[in-house]
User: What shape does this take?
Amino acid sequence: MIDAIFDKIEKGVRLTFEDGLALYQCKELPILSYMANHVREKKKPDNTVTYIIDRNINYTNVCVDKCSFCAFYRPVGSNEGYVLSYEEIDQKIEELIALEGIQILMQGGLNPKLKITYYEDLFRHLKSKFPQIWLHCLSAPEIDYIAKVSELSVEETLLRLKAAGLDSIPGAGAEILVDRVRTEVSRGKCDSERWLALHRIAHKVGLSTTATMMYGHVETLEERIEHIIKIRDLQDESLKNYGRGFTAFIPWNFQPDNVPLGQNPNIRVTTTVEYLQTLAISRVMLDNIDNFQVSWVTQGKDVAQVGLNYGANDFGSLMIEENVVSQNGTTFNVTIKDIEKMISDAGYTAKRRNNRYQVIN
Ligand code: SF4
Assistant: This one.
């Protein structure tokens, strides 16, 4: 079976659901590495591994949802809840610019006090003060919630956010795009169809997006492959209809510390081997997405470095500030020098990029 799958990969034949599942049974990591690198080299033949300098800004931690994997949110009314002021956000961006950063990844909770005008005013303020900074902001569940509390359609919401300065949308909040799983781990969030519809509309109105997968909790292997194929189908559709779609795919495993889901006796405990398998399988299944990121924030530096041999061509971002995953007890600090050394030690050439994955140095 594995030989037949590799034959398909070499001939550029798309893999099926059954192929994806069969690859999860393959315990010989070098084979998966070889397959994933074969696909990567076809798409990215120049041996470059890119990274971006950006900063996470978690503008509010107030959230009406209670995702069982999240240690970041505070319920409405909590005295630990916050919304950052313009001054605090500006200061973070000034620090980013001092480090040659070019993008902010701004995400937060589903805060019922913040309607569309809050975001429009904030984005207009940021674009006028920092026109060089790319606004990669707001996950699909946040935008879905902003539309709901503002009594707008998703399309109208996206058009207004884009007019105010939103440049692109991160792929957070996908978890696993199967409603059985979503009901268990993130009950209040948009369902899988709505997550996909929101990204479809974003592509339609001119915003590129990324896609993620948080695996390693209550999902089955079948549901992981279903997730990957849903992303692949939408990418086909968006590229055909709008000429844009997902710029990158980023898988990572659930971080079980300090969160209720971590106590669930049914969760699958995942390992480094499973991360590398999942990265490689995603790469060979998602034949229509160009860029794959390793997630050093969740996997650590060493595993991320190894991940470059499992189909990834991007090291993600310097991530000057990260609050969501670190609340689960996962913290790794890296510098630009660290990133460049890890990439070059793995045999690749490190290059800085922008949000469009264009090399900028
Ligand atoms: S993951 Fe996001 S939506 Fe879920 S509880 Fe945390 S902040 Fe809220």
Remarks:
- Residues 63, 65-67, 70, 72-73, 109-110, 141, 186, 189 surround iron/sulfur cluster (CB under 6 Å).
- The first strand starts at residue 48 and ends at 52.
- The chain has one domain: 2-352.
